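Run: sequence + flavin-adenine dinucleotide -> complex structure.
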Amino acid sequence: MLTITADTPVVIIGAGPVGLAAAAHLAERGLPFLVLEAGPQAGYSVLSWGHVQLFSPWRYSLDKAALRLLEPTGWKSPAPEAYPTGRALVERYLAPLAAHPALAPHLRLGRRVAAITREGVDKLSNAGREQAPFLLHIERADGGEELLRASAVIDASGTYGTPNPLGASGLPAMGERAAAASIFYGIPDVLGAHRERYAGKRVLVAGSGHSAFNALLELASLAQEAPGTQITWAVRRGGERMGQAYGGGANDALPARGELGQRIRTLVDAGVVRLVTGWRTDRVERIPTGLVVHAGTRALAPLDEIVVATGLRPDLAPLAELRLGLDPAVEAPTALAPLIDPNFHSCGTVRPHGVDELSHPEPGFFIVGMKSYGRAPTFLLLTGYEQARSVTAALAGDWEAARRVELELPETGVCSGPVVAGGASTGASCCGPTETPVTTSSLIELSPVVALPKGAALIALSQPAEASSCCAPAVQASCCEPEAKADCCGAVAEPVGETDKLVALVPASGSSCGCQ
Ligand SMILES: Cc1cc2nc3c(=O)[nH]c(=O)nc-3n(C[C@H](O)[C@H](O)[C@H](O)COP(=O)(O)OP(=O)(O)OC[C@H]3O[C@@H](n4cnc5c(N)ncnc54)[C@H](O)[C@@H]3O)c2cc1C
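>> structure
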C-alpha cells in the first residue's frame, strides 16, 4: 500500500456514523485523512429518517474513539438508556463530532464521490497497480468537479440512497418509474412533515419488516384523525406464514418488538389495515381514478400513494473500476457474506469482524458500515464501529490491534438462549455452545420504533464451545438454515420478507438452544 501522507491521505467516503468513527480513529492515530460527504452536513442520510426512533439506546449508538474526542470538550453525553431519534443522533452526537477540531478541518461537505480508480492504471492492468494512488472523481454540490489522490479509501457511504424497488423481481416494476411522484421509498414522516401527503388518501405499504410496520402504525394513527385514509399492506409471504411475520408476541424476548407485531395484527384483524398476502408486484398503472398495482393476474383497487419499504442495496457503480471481492448474492465482502447471508442466517450469529473480512483484492480499499453488509438487512452501528476501529488500526500498521476483537457485545437473551446470573448464556442444550464470540445483529431488526427492554442485550457473548456442535462457527450456515434449525432447535426463525431488511425471530419452543 502507498505511504499515507498529507498529499495522499486516507479518504473516507461518507460522514455518517461509521465514516465519522473511522475519522475519529485516524485522528487519534495521527494519520492524515479527509472525509468526503455528499450532503450539506454530517449525518445527512440519518437525517432522512430523522423522525424515526432507533431501537438501540444511546449506549449502543456511540463510537469509543469519538467519545474519547468529545468528552474532554464538555460535550454532554445523552442518557445511556434513552432511545434517540435519527435527528437526535445527528444533533447530539454526529454534528458535535464533525465540528470537533480534530475532524472539522478534514471534512469536505457537498462532495459526492462519483468514481474511484487507480491513477494511470485501469482495472485490467497489473503493472504498477499497488504503487499507484487511488484517484477519486468528485462531483461538488456547486456543480464543479475535482480529482483527489488517496493512499487508501474507506467507503462508508451507506445504502440509504439506493432502496430496493417495488418490483418483486429486484427491478423496478413496469410503470414504477413513471409513478415515482406517488411513491415514497423508506419511512415517510406520516405524522409530521408528510402528513398532508397521506391524510385522507388510499395508501399501499409494500414490505413486511418493521419499517413497514412503522409506516402502517403511523398511517393507522393518521386514519383516526383524517377520515378517508385507507391502508393496504402487501407482502410477499403467503397467508399461512403471516403468523411468523407478526413476530413472537408475548414470547418475544424483546417485548416492544413483540408488541409491535401484535399491534399490526390487531389493526389487520380490525380491518384498519387491509392485508394482501402472496403479493409480487410486477406492474404499476396510472388510470384516471388512481394507481393500480398488479401482480400477475391480480390487481389492487386504485391507490393514491405507495410506500415502498422493501430494503436497501449498495451502490456499486462508483466502484466499477476497482477490483472488488464481493459475494455475488449478498454483495458484501466475500469473507463477510457467509456470516450475514439471510438465506442461511435466519436469526444470524455474526462474529465480530474487521480488516481481514473486509479486505478486497484491491489493497488499501475497504467498505465499512451499512454498505459492507451489501443487501443483507441486519447491520448494527456497533458492528460498524468495530469495523472502523479494525480497518484504521491496520492502516496504521497496528495489526495486533486490527485483529484483536474489541467488540463488547451485550447479550440478547434471544439468540443465545436464556441469560443466567453472571451474564452467561445457557444456550448449550440441543445445539451446544459456540467458541467464537458472536453477535446477534441479525436478530435486531432495523425497526424504527422497537425499543429494547431496559437491560436487554443486543448481542450474544462467547460461550464455551464444542467444535462439533451445530452452532460451531464452521457449520453456522447449515445450523442456521431454517429447516436444519427446526430439527436442531425445535424452532424456525426467518426473515420477514425476502427483500426486506428486517428479520424477525420466531421464538423456539426449546428456547435454551444455543443456535436459535
Ligand atoms: C430507519 C433506520 C433505523 C435504524 N436504526 C438503527 C438502530 O436503532 N441501531 C443500529 O445499530 N442501527 C440502526 N440502523 C442501521 C444503521 O446503523 C444506520 O443505517 C446507520 O446510519 C449506518 O451508518 P453508516 O455510516 O454506515 O451509513 P449512513 O448513515 O447511511 O451514512 C453514509 C453517508 O455517506 C454519504 N454518502 C453517500 N454516498 C456518498 C458518495 N458517493 N460520496 C460522498 N458521500 C456519500 C451520505 O450522505 C451519508 O451521510 C437503522 C437504519 C435505518 C435506515
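>> summary
The CA atoms of residues 185 and 308 lie 5 Å apart. The radius of gyration is 23 Å.
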